[in-house]
C-alpha cells in the first residue's frame, strides 16, 4: 500500500507545484491522475520515487517512508517501484531483451550488468514478460527498430522485471494513436489486476481514464480537487478540475472517433477475408 501524507513541493521563486497532497492507494488499485498541464501530475509521480525531492510530507510504501531515506537505502527502495515513461526511456542501440533485463540492474552485481551476463532466472523471466506483452518475436531486435506501441510494451516489461510493489506510469499514451493507446492501457490494467499490483497512471486523456481506471484523482494547481470513481466524473467535476468546457461535445467527439476506428477495422477484416 502507498500512503502520501501532506506531500508538498515548492520551487524557488515559483508557485507550489504540490500543496498538502494526502492520498492512499491500496494493493491492487489502479488510480488515474488527471488535470490540466501544470497541475502537478508528473511532479507527484516523481516525488514518490524521489526523482524530484519533496519539500515536505511523507511517502510511505508499506512501512517505509521513502522521503526520509538516504542515498543507499533509496537505491534499494527504488527497486520496489516500477516506472513506465511517456518517451519510453529505452536504450535505443540495445536489443529488446537487453532493455527488459535492465530492469534487473538494481539486483545484480555491476560486473554482470557490464558484461550483460544476467542470471538464468532473470533471462527466463524476461522471456516470460516479453511473451506477456506480445513481443516474443522481437527479443533480438534493436529498440530503435520498433514502433511507438512496441517501445511502450518494452517499457512495461522492463518495469515488471523489477518485480515491483508499485507501478508509476507517466502519460503512457501521449505519443500513441487512439487505437494503440487503448491497447496499451488495456495491457497495463490487465497486468496490474493479474498481479494485484497498485498503480498510479498520469493520463491526459479523460475518456481513456474513465474507461480503464478504477479510481480517478483530479489535480488543479497542485491540489486534489476530485477523488472518486470514474462514474462520478460529472460535468461539474470536470469543470472543477479543468475549467469551463462543453464536455458533452467532447465526449460525443471521442465516441464518434472510436466508432470510426472500429468501422475501419471491420473494413480491413472484411478485405482480409
What are the key terms here?
273 residues, alpha/beta, six-stranded mixed sheet, 10 strands
Question: What does this molecule look like?
Answer:
By secondary structure, the chain is of the alpha/beta class. The chain is 42% helix and 20% strand. It contains ten helices and ten strands. It has helices at residues 41-48, 71-78, 96-101, 110-115, 120-132, 148-161, 178-195, 206-212, 235-242, 247-272, and strands spanning 2-9, 18-25, 30-34, 56-61, 64-65, 81-84, 166-170, 199-202, 215-220, 223-228. It has a six-stranded mixed sheet, sandwiched between helices. Strands 2-1-4-5 form a four-stranded antiparallel sheet, covered by helices on one side. Strand 1 (2-9) and strand 2 form a beta hairpin. The radius of gyration is 20 Å and the shape is globular.
Describe the secondary-structure layout:
Blueprint: E1 2-9, E2 18-25, E3 30-34, H1 41-48, E4 56-61, E5 64-65, H2 71-78, E6 81-84, H3 96-101, H4 110-115, H5 120-132, H6 148-161, E7 166-170, H7 178-195, E8 199-202, H8 206-212, E9 215-220, E10 223-228, H9 235-242, H10 247-272
Parallel strand pairs: 3-8, 3-9, 6-7, 7-8
Antiparallel strand pairs: 1-2, 1-4, 4-5, 9-10
Helix pairs in contact: 5-6, 6-7
Domain ABC transporter: 2-246
Keywords: ATP-binding, Cell inner membrane, Cell membrane, Membrane, Nucleotide-binding, Translocase, Transport
InterPro entries: AAA+_ATPase, ABC_transporter-like_ATP-bd, ABC_transporter-like_CS, ABC_transpr_PhnC, MetN_ABC_transporter-like, P-loop_NTPase
Amino acid at each position: 500500500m502507498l500512503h502520501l501524507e501532506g506531500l508538498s513541493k515548492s520551487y524557488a521563486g515559483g508557485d507550489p507545484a504540490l500543496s498538502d497532497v494526502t492520498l492512499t492507494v491500496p494493493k491492487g488499485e489502479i488510480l488515474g491522475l488527471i488535470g490540466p498541464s501544470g497541475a502537478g501530475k508528473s511532479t507527484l509521480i516523481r516525488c514518490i520515487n524521489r526523482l524530484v525531492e519533496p519539500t515536505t510530507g511523507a511517502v510511505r510504501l508499506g512501512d517505509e517512508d521513502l522521503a526520509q531515506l538516504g542515498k543507499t537505502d533509496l537505491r534499494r527502495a527504488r527497486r520496489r517501484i516500477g516506472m513506465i515513461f511517456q518517451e519510453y526511456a529505452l536504450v535505443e542501440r540495445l536489443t529488446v531483451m537487453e532493455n527488459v533485463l535492465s530492469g534487473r540492474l538494481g539486483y545484480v552485481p555491476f560486473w554482470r550488468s557490464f558484461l550483460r551476463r544476467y542470471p538464468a532466472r532473470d533471462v527466463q523471466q524476461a522471456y516470460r514478460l516479453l511473451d506477456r506483452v506480445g513481443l516474443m518475436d522481437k527479443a533480438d531486435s534493436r529498440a530503435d527498430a520498433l514502433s511507438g506501441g512496441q517501445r511502450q510494451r518494452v517499457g512495461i516489461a522492463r518495469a515488471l522485471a523489477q518485480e515491483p510493489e508499485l507501478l508509476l506510469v507517466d502519460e503512457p499514451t501521449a505519443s500513441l494513436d487512439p487505437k494503440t493507446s487503448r491497447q496499451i492501457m488495456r495491457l497495463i490494467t490487465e497486468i496490474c489486476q493479474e498481479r494485484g499490483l497498485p498503480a498510479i497512471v498520469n493520463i491526459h486523456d479523460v475518456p481513456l481514464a474513465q474507461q480503464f481506471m478504477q479510481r480517478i484523482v483530479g489535480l488543479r494547481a497542485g491540489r486534489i480537487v476530485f477523488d472518486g470513481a470514474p462514474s462520478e466524473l460529472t460535468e461539474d467535476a470536470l469543470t472543477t478540475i479543468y475549467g469551463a468546457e462543453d464536455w458533452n461535445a467532447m465526449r460525443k467527439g471521442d465516441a464518434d472517433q472510436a466508432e470510426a476506428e472500429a468501422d475501419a477495422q471491420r473494413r480491413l477484416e472484411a478485405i482480409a477475408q
